[in-house]
Each structure stands twice: as structure tokens, then as C-alpha cells.
Specification:
Layout lengths: L11 E6 L1 H8 L19 H6 L2 E8 L26 H21 L4 E3 L3 H9 L3 E8 L9 H8 L2 E5 L28 H13 L2 E3 L5 H10 L5 E2 L16 H9 L3 E4 L3 H4 L11 H15 L4 E3 L18 H10 L4 H18 L1
Parallel strand pairs: 1-2, 2-4, 3-4, 4-5, 5-6, 7-8, 8-9
The protein binds zinc ion.
Length: about 350
């Protein structure tokens, strides 16, 4: 890896986005947009990724509960149809559709986009200025309890799996987006969920605990032999959302050699949980600083949730990532630490998984 001569050159490998879903759902509608054209809609496309020195990330495949969901409007967290359980076959087909969308992006990119299956492939892509796409599933509905689909999707590039989204499935329960609230809402993993953690461990698929209930979190800590990773969650001590992690959870992640990626969703950042677009970048930096204090310099990354969240205006799309780098520098983070948070820690945890 090159050592960066100045902080402003640092690239970002980001732990979570929903761009595949956004783009695939708008295909064939009047709001359709191409990944290759600069848009003012949504958060990620290739031109804005280049402006923001976004080197790549975990691209999530998420199956919405409500098939009629209109992706041109903001997600309504109060609509119960958005949390309904989904049959495995439906989620599997939809996941294949999103993986296929990623393959088409790679094929159409003329070498600019590359689906990566290991940290070393990501490093190689970064050195060639190719955008690294690592495939993730958010909510394991697509996986059957005999794990045939897990092996099949692994063969298609899957390297990271969130056991649940904020709804129940065969493997466990998701945590509601409650505020203020403890994350200890609802049951933990089922026996199938614990077996899925072990199956992921033996394949080398990263297990993501973001969206899990606190009981489910502790079940993963007990079942998993790999580092514990929360790809897009923040510090509960600063913002008491049920989607964030308590100090005890952060300590367990630290002990496992794991990582937390900071999420840009306004309501997971602010102390008051209010939806305030003018939230300053310092609030994001404050979470990063707190997590570094708790997890050490090797345990913190970025998990923007772009195209799946409502970020503050100052980080309104991927082209603004350098402003976050600048924000860290202004807060006194050294170049080495910024580089770790920006991409090295993600690559290290993928290596160790
Ligand atoms: Zn999410």
C-alpha cells in the first residue's frame, strides 16, 4: 500500500452502502440513473465516487419487505409493511438480481469497477485505481437453514453477511430503530442463527452484527471465532438509539479484534436523535473519537450507509468524504490514524476473517 504523502490524498474503503438496491429498483422508471453518470440524486455514482476518493466498499444486497416500495421517496420507518417477514425464495431471487446488477456494472465499466473476493484483491484494485466492490447481504433471508444458498452465493462473490435487518427472520431478530432506547429489545439468535455464524466462520464470510438485538449480539460473540464487526453502527453513549452499540458491546468487539464502521444516518449520530439536516461534521468526528478511545486505533472504520440513510448536509453524498478526512485532521487525528480509519482497518479485518 502506498504511504500517503498528505492527508488530503487518503482514499476511503467504506463498510456499507445500499447503492445496488437504489439503482436496481429505479431501473425502468422515470427516475432511473446510471452508475456511470454524475447525478444529483442519491448518494453514490462513479463520478462522485472518484471526486470523493471512494476506493470501494461493501455493497449490500437488501431485500425490501414491501415489494411495492417506491424507492424514489424516503424510507418511512413507521410503515409496518416495511418490516414484514419475507419468504426465503423471494429474498434469494432478489439477492441474485442485485448481485447480477453488480456484475453488469463490472462488465460495463471498462475495468473501472471490480468485484473483489478478498482483501488482497481490494488492495490490488486500489493500486490500479479500480473501484472495489465487495458483496454483502443485509439480512440473511436469502439463506436457507441447510445453507445451500450460502455456499452458492459465496461462489458468486458473497464475503460479508448481516444476520438480520431490523425485522425477524429464521436466524434471529432485528432491533427496531427506537430512540431513546436500549438495544436490548427482543430475542437473540435461533439455533439456525448460531449455526449460520459457524458456517460463515468456516467459509470466511464476515458476520455483521449491525441491526441485531443486544441478545443476538451476545449470541454472536459466543458462537463466533472471527472478529466481531458492526459495519454501520455508532456509539450509544453519544446517541442513545437502539441501532447503536453500548460500551459493553464496544468492549466485546474490541476484545475480539473487531471493528465498528461509523454510520452517517443523522438520527444515529445526534445526541437528541432529531432529524436535523444541518448537523455538523464534528458530530461524526465525535463518534469516531469515542470509538477510537473504546476500541483502539485498529477497531474503527467508516460505514456510511450511503443510498440507505439520510446523512447530514455536510456529507450529503460520497463526493464529500474528503470533508470528513479534513474534519478528523482538524480534530487532531494524525495521518496514520486517519489512514487506518479510512481504509486500513477494514482491509485488516477482512484479512483476519
Ligand atoms: Zn442498515
Amino acid at each position: 500500500m502506498p504511504t500517503h504523502s498528505s492527508v488530503s490524498d487518503i482514499s476511503v474503503f467504506d463498510g456499507h452502502n445500499d447503492t445496488l438496491l437504489k439503482l436496481a429498483m429505479l431501473e425502468g422508471t422515470p427516475r432511473e440513473r446510471s452508475f456511470f453518470d454524475r447525478s444529483s440524486e442519491g448518494h453514490i455514482d462513479l463520478p462522485r465516487a472518484r471526486e470523493g476518493r471512494f476506493a470501494g466498499g461493501l455493497f449490500a444486497a437488501f431485500t425490501p419487505s414491501n415489494p411495492e416500495y417506491d424507492f424514489s421517496t424516503p424510507f418511512n420507518p413507521n410503515d409496518p409493511r416495511n418490516y414484514a417477514e419475507i419468504p426465503q425464495s423471494q429474498a434469494y431471487d432478489f439477492t441474485l438480481k442485485l448481485f447480477d446488477y453488480a456484475s453488469r456494472l463490472e462488465a460495463q465499466s471498462g475495468g473501472e469497477v471490480r468485484i473483489c473476493r478478498s482483501a488482497n484483491e481490494i488492495r490490488d484494485a486500489m493500486s490500479k485505481d479500480q473501484l472495489a466492490v465487495s458483496l454483502h447481504i443485509e439480512g440473511a433471508e436469502a439463506i436457507d437453514t441447510d445453507f445451500h444458498a450460502l455456499e452458492d452465493l459465496y461462489g458468486k462473490g458473497l464475503r460479508s453477511l448481516g444476520l438480520v435487518w431490523s425485522r425477524a427472520n429464521a436466524f434471529g431478530d432485528g432491533v427496531p430503530m427506537a430512540f431513546p432506547s436500549s438495544p436490548d429489545i427482543g430475542p437473540g439468535l435461533t439455533d439456525a442463527g448460531k449455526a449460520l455464524v459457524k458456517a460463515c466462520n468456516s467459509l470466511g464470510v464476515l458476520v455483521d452484527v449491525s441491526h441485531l438485538t443486544e441478545k443476538g449480539f451476545w449470541d454472536v460473540v459466543e458462537a463466533s471465532e472471527a472478529p466481531i464487526v458492526a459495519s454501520h453502527s455508532n456509539a450509544h453513549a453519544i446517541c442513545p438509539s437502539a441501532r447503536n452499540l453500548t460500551d459493553k458491546q464496544l468492549d466485546a468487539i474490541c476484545e475480539s479484534g473487531g471493528l465498528v464502521g461509523v454510520n452517517f444516518q443523522i438520527s444515529f449520530l445526534r445526541e437528541d436523535g432529531r432529524y436535523q439536516k444541518q448537523t455538523p461534521i464534528d458530530v461524526v468526528v465525535r463518534h469516531l473519537a469515542y470509538l477510537v478511545e473504546r476500541l483502539g486505533e485498529d477497531g474503527v472504520g467508516i460505514g456510511s450507509d450511503y443510498d440507505g440513510c439520510s446523512p447530514p448536509h455536510c456529507l450529503r453524498d460520497i463526493s464529500h468524504l474528503p470533508d470528513l478526512i479534513k474534519g478528523m485532521e482538524n480534530a487532531g487525528f494524525g495521518a496514520k490514524l486517519i489512514q487506518k480509519i479510512a481504509f486500513e482497518n477494514w482491509l485488516s479485518v477482512l484479512d483476519r476473517t
